[in-house]
Design a protein that fits this description.
By secondary structure, this protein is mainly α. The chain is 67% helix and 0% strand. The N terminus is likely disordered. It comes from Galeopterus variegatus (Malayan flying lemur). InterPro entries: TPR-like_helical_dom_sf (IPR011990), TPR_rpt (IPR019734).
Length: 267
Amino acid sequence: MLQILSPLGRINEAVNDLTKAIQLQPSARLYRHRGTLYFISEDYATAHEDFQQSLELNKNQPIAMLYKGLTFFHRGLLKVKEAIESFKEALKQKVDFIDAYKSLGQAYRELGNFEAATESFQKALLLNQNHVQTLQLRGVMLYHHGSLQEALKNFKRCLQLEPYNEVCQYMKGLSHVAMGQFYEGIKAQTKVMLNDPLPGQKASPEYLKVKYLREYSRYLHAHLDTPLTEYNVDVDLPGSFKDHWAKNLPFLIDDYEEQPGLQPHIK
């Protein structure tokens, strides 16, 4: 029944069935399955308890150990060091575990350990150079580290493998804009804007942010020939624009006039 109910999104029913099965005959597999469902439901503390129970019944479970680490990771910075220990333990059990290397890199990045994060992402990519999630995470880390050219390489590779990856598309546009390449940046941003969510589907954070970024990019491009002392983004753009952007709200701003398009003569 679990295999039927879980994909249908009827997680509570699946959890109830697993709970009954565990009461009848507990096993490492059943605890792991239920922990995964709690994890999907973002109940990380309860998920952790189930993964711990599963590992007590069978220690050699790299996937359960990985998820145990992820339950720590998703509970905030104070738990990240415990997450790292779980990811390392998962790698002891399975030395070629790409997702564990990727998660380890992500955890080190959260702690600001750029070198250790880079090493972990590199190990994941040595196992699979086309691992999209690792390319995406490494690109984001490089962007925030100021290594824009290297970040851009990761986002471009990510999009070669997964052309509809919104995060990589958005970050590609952001990287171009940060380097002053406004034409390329706006071109990448427009592709994100075309990904309208389906009826009833929640819009991605990238989709919500991208129109603000495109308008900001156009604003900066339109002022490239203007001395820096003669324009001020805080004055020129309405307060509601910045407020909505900061709060990640849909682009619905009264009486907003779009910024001018690109001027080819401005390099």
